[in-house]
Amino acid sequence: MSERKKRFRYRRWRYFFLSAAFLLILVTPILNLYFHFTFVQGWYQSLGIGRLWIVSPLEGLESLLISKYIYLPSLIGMLIPVIVALYLGRVFCSWVCPISFLHETLDRIRRRIFRYNPVTWKDRLVLSLRVLWVALIGEFLLSMILGFPIFVFVSPPGLVGRELMLGIIFHTFALEGFIILVILLLHLVTRRFYCRYLCPLGGLLAFLGQKRRLKVRLKSKKCSGCGICEKVCPLGLPVNRGGSYSPYCWNCGECVDYCPTGALKFYWKRPYYLKPTSEETPKARSGNPLPDE
Amino acid sequence: MDRRLFLKLLAGGLLVSCAPGELASSPIKTNVLRPPGAIPEDFFASRCIRCGRCAESCSYRSIKILDLRHGFYAGTPVIYVERIPCYLCMRCVKVCPTGTLQKVSQKEVRMGLARVNRRLCVTWKGEGICRSCYNACPFREQAIKLDRLRPVVVPEVCVGCGLCTYACPVTPKAIVIEPVYAFKASK
Asked: Does A137 map to a domain?
């Protein structure tokens, strides 16, 4: 009944989340500067909400590896993003990251003006998804060889945040802002080119989220093999051939939205010690497994 | 192909980074200082995660963030004391998530050391009586003392905040901050 009228779309919620996350890092410097409201500070490299500090795992790990110095607040700050990545996978990339917001906004503008349609869109330059690992390891190695962290130039969430902060507080933009433009231009060639192949933070989160709980499940009984999911996946994953189980999947729910037969659904993989013996107990929550009705 | 491209990029990056030595040389020099509580310059750039929260929390906008022109030091905070000195509000040290700015009290700050150029200073030249630096110093009568009305810096107390440099009316400045502690020989 309600399915007819208004199907639940993850896309809308995701854009809402992305906008809220972008607004947070846009409003925070204004609040800090003009209203001296310092409860929330920073952006997605290091976010301080009161006494709760969140440090981006890539930056924290790189700083730790290069300076070989363990600083406890930094480690504790990395805990929350790491736990989120372990359980939910790369959700930061698709639901929070400010560069993702810019990508989505660009897509919406393209849809309005140029009649852009993700189903018919063809990516021009397609590489192997494993390039992501090369980028991650290469980034770490290069910074360790040089002795200077290079995430400053290659981690887009930090770049966007820094540009916003500089723009608001100092009324100037740093030169590295052109990297954001390059990333957005690459998006016009291949959807999410940077996120797919080059983002070291995405690589790290993908690595952490290999055994994530939240996954998109493909029910092969319902699947008609139309291949729309593969076309709309922003990462170009072969969803109908198990791409959503790969570490690269960032749980954006785009394929779930587009699937015409409802074969794709988010599901929460319970840990093995809570798994009931019978296969079909869809609504049994964790805790007591309810022997029989 | 991907690997080749990547290796090319890697080699290119290395070349670009190594060719001008400017990129890897520290921006810290006279009157260009790190914020309070900064660890020595040898480790600063590697431990700082460039989150910019020190700059965001700085109420006087003393802390500036370097950009791409400073190579690998891009994103790190500096204070140009000639433009806006540090007023020692000690907010930045409280928000640093990596310990790059260590939690120190006002008196323990060692951003640099003030140095009086006696050939430029009006009072030292005997051309007049100026006590701008003495009046501006937050540790009056401790960090800058007057020796027969001529300013003398006490290195044990001076924190290098740069208020004296900012107040100095002479151009070029007769009192400058030298970042002597930033380059202290590390063990």
From this structure: yes
**What stretches of B20-174 adopt beta strand conformation (E)?**
32-33, 63-65, 77-80, 113-116, 144-147, 150-153
Residue A233 C-alpha, separation from nearest chain B C-alpha, in angstroms: 22
Using alpha carbons only, what angle is made at residue A17 by residues A11 and A23, rounded to the nearest 5 degrees? 135
Rounded to 10°, the helix A10-34/A156-169 angle is: 40
CA–CA distance, A91 with A253 (Å, rounded to integer): 10
Residues 6+ apart with CB under 8 A from A168: A26, A29, A30, A33
Phi-psi region of A42 (alpha: psi -120 to 50; beta: other; left: phi over 0): left
Note the pLDDT tens digit of each residue in A88-121: 988 999 999 999 999 999 999 998 998 888 888 8
Q: Is B12 inside any structural domain?
A: no
Using an 8 Å Cβ cutoff, are A139 and A154 in contact?
yes
Residue B113 inside a domain? The answer is: yes
Supply the pLDDT for residue A260: 87
- Total number of domains in chain A: 1
B3 reaches A (C-beta below 8 A)? yes
User: Is B19 domain-assigned?
Assistant: no
Cβ contact A42–B47 (<8 Å): no
Does the residue B127 lie in any domain? yes
Alpha carbon distance A209, A232 (integer Å): 22
Three-state DSSP state, A233: coil
As for how many domains chain B has, the answer is 1
Residue A271 lies in a domain: no
Say which residues have a Cβ less than 8 Å from residue A21's Cβ, sequence separation at least 6.
A44, A95, A96, A97, A98, A101
Structural domain includes residue A70:
yes
Kindly report, residue by residue over B15-24, the tens digit of the pLDDT: 766 555 556 7
Give the range of the structural domain holding residue A143, as residue numbers without chain letter: 2-213
* Partner residue facing A45 (CB), from B47, B50, B69: B50
Question: Which residues make beta-bridge pairs with A129?
Answer: none
Is A127 inside a domain boundary?
yes
Residues on chain A touching B186 (C-beta within 8 angstroms): none
CA dist B180 and B159 (Å) reads 11
B77-80/B32-33 β-pairing: antiparallel
Q: How many residues does chain A have?
A: 293
Cis status of the peptide bond prior to B172, with omega within 30 of 0: yes
The reply to whether residue A147 touches residue B46, judged by beta carbons under 8 angstroms, is yes
Alpha-carbon distance of B187 to A128, in angstroms, equals: 46
